[in-house]
Design a protein that fits this description.
The protein is α+β, with helices and mostly antiparallel strands. It is built from 1 helix and 2 strands. Strands 1-2 form a two-stranded antiparallel ribbon. The chain is flat and about 45 Å long.
């Protein structure tokens, strides 16, 4: 099993940053692939459900 966790971190001074953590032994190509799949999945679910792709 492997995991990537993306977090929006709000610092005590109010500033924000994006932080990422991942499983030990997870290579860069696996991380890149997992992030790409997550991006594709999230983008496809952002489309209106009643949109007609044929026009």
């Amino acid at each position: 099993m492997a995991a990537i966790v993306l977090m929006k971190v709000v610092e005590t001074d109010g500033s924000t940053r994006l932080s990422m953590s991942y499983s030990d032994g997870l290579g860069w190509i696996e991380r890149a692939g997992m992030l790409r799949i997550a991006e594709t999945t999230e983008t496809s679910t952002a489309q209106p459900r009643d949109a007609n792709p044929e026009g």
